[in-house]
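Listing S7. Sequence submitted for prediction.
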Amino acid sequence: MAAPMYFSVVVTVTIVKLLLIPSYRSTDFEVHRNWLAITHSRPVSQWYYEDTSEWTLDYPPMFAWFEFLLSRIAKLFDPAMLEVTNLNYASFATVLFQRLSVIVSDFVLVYAVYECCQCVQLVGKKKSPHLLSQPMFVLAVLLLWNFGLLIVDHIHFQYNGFLTGLKLLSIARILQRRHLEGAFWFSLLLNFKHIYLYIAPAYFIFLLRSYCFTRSNRDGRVQWTSLSLMNLFGLGVVVLEVFAISFGPFIAMGQLGQVLSRLFPVKRGLVHAYWAPNFWALYNIADKAATAVAVRAKLLSADDITKATMTGGLVQEYTHNALPTITPLVTVILTLAAMMPALVHLWRRPCTPRDFLRCLVLCAFSSFLFGYHVHEKAIILIIIPLSLLAVESRQDGQVFLLLSTCGHLSLFPLLFTQAETPSKVCLMLMFSLFAFMSLGVLHSSSKKRPYCLPLLSPLETAYTVGLVFLQLYCSLGHHTLGLTTRLPFLPLMLTSVYCAVGVMWSWLKFYLITLTDMQHLKQS
């Protein structure tokens, strides 16, 4: 893709980000303001002990140092934002600085996306002057204009674009077979945000199989005598150096336990305040339905039923009534079990970077679907890497369209104020229309299905259309029917459960494509 065209994509999306500066801000805005204050006004030894605010520092040390560097610039805008006791402080200068810090840090994403675009395989693609027929252009728009990143970072407020840039840079280096650089960027990413541990197994298996073991047998299995101790040593040094620099000072101060207790709090519920659209959303609704039946059949007493607060904004432990209560250990076992076929598949066959990428997507899928206390925003961890595969393969494009549509719509409840409704609806429509049009053109087929959305089957089309009616009910119908006071949780629950069906279907379909080798690089 020509540099001027890429530059135009970057400029247009940056203008949109600037226009979103006055938008609604979630409590995450205060979280990061407080972290700026902690790292600026407290010594390093107190960073992970400071608890004046309820929003204590709970990211790995690299992100703490990132906040520390930002605080050096923040004091030029408004020094008052750097006072720990100045809770919920949000002057115009503070808002401007924090919003701009997200926009500027996104240029890591801009560079990483450019690198990923250079890795797109053009096998079977005919050169065309039509922009929608150019995979690199389509990929650039799908990544830089990703709906989830735009609303979560530039309205809700977080730094996912910056972190996604580190992840994509790591993936690009793997695709370029620059394994040590890929390992370095991923290690750095883990020390910025530990949620990326979800995809660490894919990195571990791939680097061990393709970098540390250098040869395969004729049947594709690993040749055990080909282990390169030099490569293994080099890989270990790269990874351990990053972790030593990050955690070393806190280990030296005897604070490793305190840091880890902040990173991995255990007193949290199975689901977040708003159910992420995963397996546990379906499990919870099944428990509610089973409980209702059991009460009517007098198998359960109404006095014995725990009052659920899972969609009421609280984060706490929850006991199911009719179905077995799920512990963190159960979710760990299920998550690992869901990952295992993909990891075994990656180990047993000759590893290519595309095999790694598919395994990475499946690890992200498994963690999102079966993990403990999963945030709805984690759907972005699946959609972003899947974008790279979607522009190369028709079948992966099908999965991407369904997943990105239901996954992105599941983020709508994050922006609950009426003022943000036009923004989220317009951004969602823009992204979805581009995705369907571009991937439809990119993977065009002589076999046209009447009354179907591009690439989707009739059933998937019907499901996707159902998302429109779901949003109409949640935005207008629920209030019109006078159910706001009586059933305030219903729109959240319907959104979560309906979108969970689409996410589960996408996972199963993508897994089938991967494990059966259904010629996922063939363009049909």
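Caption to Listing S7: primary sequence and predicted structure tokens for the chain studied. Confidence is low (pLDDT under 50) at residues 308-316, 518-524. The CA atoms of residues 89 and 264 lie 28 Å apart.
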